[in-house]
Design a protein that fits this description.
The structure is a homodimer of 238-residue chains. Chain A is 66% helix and 10% strand. In chain A, strand 2 and strand 3 form a beta hairpin. Chain A has 238 residues and is mainly α. Chain A has two domains: 158 residues, Ribonuclease iii, N-terminal Endonuclease Domain, Chain A (Orthogonal Bundle), CATH 1.10.1520.10; 67 residues, Double Stranded RNA Binding Domain (2-Layer Sandwich). Chain A is globular, with a radius of gyration of 20 Å. In chain A, strands 1-2-3 form a three-stranded antiparallel sheet, with helices on one face. Chains A and B meet through helix 4, helix 5 and strand 3 of A and helix 4, helix 5 and strand 3 of B.
Chain lengths: 238, 238
């Protein structure tokens, strides 16, 4: 990669101040902040820049390990099932984008012009992905302890809220809330028994929003509700 | 937890020799080898023993990070999509149970009598889960570098095979092979377009084995095939 420009260096410096960590390899941090749309735009003017997609892939695993380790060590009474539910909730786009907003990550993103115009700077999926890329950059630059030093305090609040039940990851309830808010009606479940157990469809205003398979009616409905919730939340962002 | 028995200590020692790592905390290794069925049996005779389920949860994240880091660092040309596919294939039950067999993990398991009778010692799901628990025990006892020292060489072979295309993770092809072998016929796909894109059913001998949702017909079929493959492989083991 080519040298960083002065304006870019200034952006990195400001973010380093907020996360209280100074990168040895500034280009790692820069790459973590480069959305595909920016990399594409730069490549068109022959500036070789990598997007943050590969870092995001690594960072997803880094954050998951941090969450799993915290749950394992600090909540010894929690079962595998509970830990697994909390992990999904904490390592989700919803949570990670909230943390990204706390460190004002949107402000530091490098975006292409098109993405900028359509509100990419505040889009949850982009913010969550970039936070993952930042986690990977921290990991590669300073090791796992550095990731812990910078990100654990943010994740811990969510872990505690989910473990203590302050936050809800009951998808059937969540779907009900969303449906009432957005469609002014309640979701309906249509569940049939078959060779694989039960198949459940969640129907909102006549449209199937999620299909779930499970060994019980309850499980099939829960899975269908989860899919519907994710579909609705994702489509709201785009 | 109570003290380890002499017979148990001997088992641990033999496994330590094979993996070429000596645990500081022997109880961690012991817990990693204790299947739920053994923990339940011991609890019934008032011996307080924890099963390996919580370690397995942590170990899943440890192995994923090891695979992701290897892909990121050693295959800089691989895209996020490729890395993601290879990660799923390598961190799968199929691969992890193969590695478990290479270190003869089945031989060292602590199983309840019922599980022993029904062939638990050779069951892929149990072997893969135990390998994950071992990864967590290594992580807690010696840190991430210890996990690397012990497990990376095994995982690397699979990573290389998948990246180079020697091993196949094309689920539609895999399903075709399985269906011909087990049902002497080919799978059929029934795909319909709907509000969410496409929904595809894989039908074998008149029975639905998997349902997939996708933004294209191809994607919906691929997901349906993946679900069917997993369903068939899981039901063969039980």
């Amino acid at each position: 990669m080519e040298e960083l420009r002065n304006g870019e260096r200034a952006v990195l410096k400001e973010l380093e101040r907020i996360i209280e960590y100074e990168f040895t390899d500034k280009k790692l941090l820069f790459t973590a902040l480069c959305h595909t749309s920016y990399a594409n735009e730069m490549n068109q003017i022959n500036r070789a820049i990598e997007s943050n997609e590969r870092l995001e892939f690594l960072g997803d695993a880094v954050i998951e390990l941090l969450v799993c380790e915290t749950l394992y060590k600090e909540f010894p009474e929690s079962s595998e099932g509970e830990m697994s539910q909390v992990k999904s909730a904490v390592a989700s786009e919803e949570t990670l984008s909230e943390i990204a907003k706390k460190i004002r990550l949107g402000h530091f993103l490098f975006l292409g012009k098109g993405e900028e115009k359509t509100g990419g700077r505040t889009r949850n999926s982009i913010l969550a992905d970039t936070l993952e890329a930042i986690a990977a950059a921290l990991y590669l630059d300073g090791g796992f302890q550095t990731v812990k030093n910078v990100l654990k305090k943010y994740l811990d609040n969510y872990i505690l809220d989910y473990i203590s039940g302050k936050k809800i990851f009951d998808y059937k309830t969540k779907l009900q809330e969303l449906t009432q808010e957005l469609f002014k009606c309640l979701p309906k479940y249509k569940t049939v028994e078959n060779q694989r157990g039960f198949t459940s469809q969640v129907i909102i205003n006549g449209t199937v929003y999620g299909i779930g398979q499970g060994i019980s009616k309850k499980e099939a409905e829960k899975i269908a509700a989860e899919k519907a919730v994710k579909l609705i939340l994702n489509s709201r962002e785009v």
